[in-house]
Amino acid sequence: MSDEPAAPYQALYRRFRPQRFADVLGQEHVTRALRAAVRDGKVAHAYLFSGPRGTGKTSTARILAMGLNCESPQDGEPDGTCQSCVAIRHGSSMDVQELDSATNRGIDEMRDLLSRVALGTPGRWKVYIVDEVHQMTSAASSALLKTLEEPPRHVIFVLATTDPQKVMPTIRSRTQHFEFRLLGPEVLVSLLREINDKASLGLPSEAIDLVVRRGHGSARDALSALDQVAAAGATEDEAAVVVDLVDAIADREPGRVLVEVAESAKAGVDPRRLGIELLEYLRNGFLATRARSLVMLSDDASAQAEAQARRLGPASLVRAMEMVGQALIDMREAADPRTTLEVALVRLSAPEVDETNAALLARVEHLEQMLGSKSGSTAPEISVRPSAAVPSGSAPQPRTSPRAQPSPATGPRGGSEASVGPPPPMPALGALRAPSPPPSVAAPPETPAPVAGPASQAVEVPPPAATPATVDLPTREELTLAWGDNVLPALRPAVKIYVASGRFVSVGDAAIYAVPDRGLLTRARAGQAEVEAALAAHFGRPVPLRLVLDEGGPTEGAPASDPSPPDAPAEDPAAYNIDELEDAPPGLLSPEQRLLEAFPGAEEVSP
After folding, report:
1. Strand partners, 97
2. What is the pLDDT of residue 4?
3. Spelled out in words, what is the top-level CATH class assigned to the domain 12-181?
4. Mean pLDDT within 187-210
5. Which of 203, 281, 371, 493 is the most buried if burial means most Cβ atoms within 10 Å?
6. Residue 424: which residues within 8 A CB-CB, separation 6 or more?
7. Distance (Å, whole) CA 271 – CA 328
8. Cα-flanking dihedrals φ and ψ of residue 105, to 5°?
9. Does 512 or 494 have the greater pLDDT score?
10. DSSP 296-355
């Protein structure tokens, strides 16, 4: 039995650290340029590597140092077997100096480093790797500037950071900047499966999918999660709770939502952690429906997130992301974070308890999905035959819904189907007004019964034609709906101001429009021709108009009387001559005099 102690366990991300440029996954745009620079002898004196954590910045810097000092490089790649490569890999080489700016960030540490820059080195190149360079103080960064701009010929600086915006612009301008990217899900799956086989972990594919989700595009985070799953021997996927929560929200089951949150709390999951996982899952579902390549999930998990996102619908999905995100913000200062999360989830799963416009939109979208999912439930379309009174060449009218369609026996005012005019256009949202009582009209004459004849034929008596005076004119309801939405906006302001306050009271041989003031009535008659032209343009046929004075709301059956002479000439406001105006009598006070009397002691100051 050997007395030698067993070698300590080494984490997976350290055991399988890349040793060549070709081993760095997902960063081909960086490794290709560095390998060519080493091969051609065109290495810059300073580099800046930036990107998220765990994407290979420090590993690439070490590979660059190995390639520069390798005894027999091969096409810019280190061989990994020479003494220099082995020493750099083990961290014992004098040619590579690593400095962590998180702990060595002051001016004294930087002066100590710069004092040793000019010293010789066993290898050809001396490489300084400064990690988290954005955490250096301003004084330390300023002290580095001169040496970074003109270092000794055998010195190369490699600066690494996760936040390049915090690095001084003067430092960035003295370096070649390479940006590292997050790894895609397919790259992570390939890497994890390869390490799973090399390390003989024996984890199933479900565990690999879980690790890919926990990795978030970072190779180091994914390998750490793989190490944890392998050590536990089982996979406890919190994403299953998130999937069930999304299903409960889509099914409109608030009770089930509360049960899922309670089960998660019993399992020891923090409500904030559950909210973060839910928000991330909703975001992946949103990205899966818009840009599948941006989803950091495996193919199966991405397909599942996309299916659930389509069940929710775009409006409900965006609303869920906003509400869960706001809940996470509110949970920071909440006395009970779980209650805050539960309230947000109940409002998502039961939009009827939410009075916001977003909740109303979600309810409408849910109804549309329910109607669209029913097969064979298309509403019948009822078309109306054009009236014989419609002028030729008029634009065809759209079809109307069965609710707005008049019965086939009678027209809008009791006429037959043959005399029905073109259907009115659908009113815009907000144009509906309180229903008015139907116009009092005489009952239509009875249609004679069909004459009985032989069994093989029947004679049908056509219905009588409607009175020509009522065929061409629209109903009062049609005029009222079209007035505010289409006719009034088409008028000039000089005409609109005098007719806007009136109303249609009835329809006889003309459309009777009542104005509440006699002065407005006089001026409205000056623009009567323009109003009739706007009505004719909207309805596609002439609509005569009679302007009357509104004396308290006449009934629709009895047309309002017109107290003013029908042929009174309209007054033109432009006909007034300002020179003919006279001053008011002395007994009347001007507005200025009234103000002076209201405020004793005030004085009028001329401008």
Report:
1. 128
2. 54
3. alpha beta
4. 87
5. 281
6. 400, 404, 474, 478, 481, 482
7. 9
8. -115, -5
9. 512
10. -S-HHHHHHHHHHHHHH-HHHHHHHHHHHHHHHHHTTS-S-HHHHHHHHHHHHH-GGG--
Task: Pick 578 or 279 by higher pLDDT.
Answer: 279
Asked whether 479 and 504 are in contact (CB, 8 A), the reply is yes
Using CA atoms of 242, 246, 248, 254 in order, give the dihedral in degrees to the nearest 10.
90
* Residue matched to tokens 């009075």: 355
Q: What is the distance between the alpha carbons of residues 193 and 16, in angstroms, rounded to a whole number?
A: 13
pLDDT, one tens digit per residue, over 117-146 is 877 778 789 999 998 888 888 888 888 888
pLDDT digits (tens, 9 = 90+) for 422-468: 445 444 444 444 444 444 444 444 444 444 444 434 444 444 444 44
CATH for 238-368 (3.30.70.660, 1.20.272.10, 3.90.1700.10, 1.10.10.10): 1.20.272.10
Tokens of 309: 């996102």
The bridge status of strand 511-515 relative to strand 503-507 is: antiparallel
Q: Helix, strand or coil for residue 384?
A: coil
Is 103's pLDDT higher than 90?
Answer: no
Side-chain-side CA neighbours of 239 within 13 Å: the count stands at: 19
- Residue 577's pLDDT band, with cuts at 50, 70 and 90, is low
Give the full edge-to-edge strand order of the sheet including 503-507: 503-507, 511-515, 545-549
Residues with Cβ within 8 Å of residue 285, at least 6 apart in sequence: 246, 305, 306, 308, 309, 312, 317
Domain 12-181 and domain 238-368 have a common topology: no
**Strand arrangement of the beta sheet that strand 155-161 belongs to:** 96-100, 126-131, 155-161, 46-50, 176-179
- Backbone phi, psi, residue 562, to 5°: -110, 95
pLDDT, residue 359, reads: 65
C-alpha to C-alpha distance for 162 and 131, rounded to whole angstroms = 9
- CA dist., res. 256 & res. 568, Å (int): 75
Kindly report the three-state secondary structure assignment for every residue of 343-354.
Answer: HHHHHHHCHHHC
Q: List all residues 6 or more positions away from 543 whose beta carbon is below 8 Å from its beta carbon.
A: 472, 473, 474, 479, 511, 532, 535, 536
Write the CATH number of the domain with boundaries 476-557.
3.30.300.150
Condensed to tens digits (0 to 9), the pLDDT of residues 248-280 reads 998 889 899 999 999 888 888 889 989 998 998
Q: Which long-range contacts (CB under 8 A, 24 or more apart) does 368-372 make?
A: 369/313
The domain limits of the chain are: 12-181, 238-368, 476-557
Which among 384, 376, 354 is positioned nearest to 366, based on CA atoms?
Answer: 354
Q: How far is CA 418 from the centre of its chain?
A: 50
- 563: amino acid identity, one letter: P
- The pLDDT value recorded for residue 403 is 41
Structure tokens at 37: 């620079």
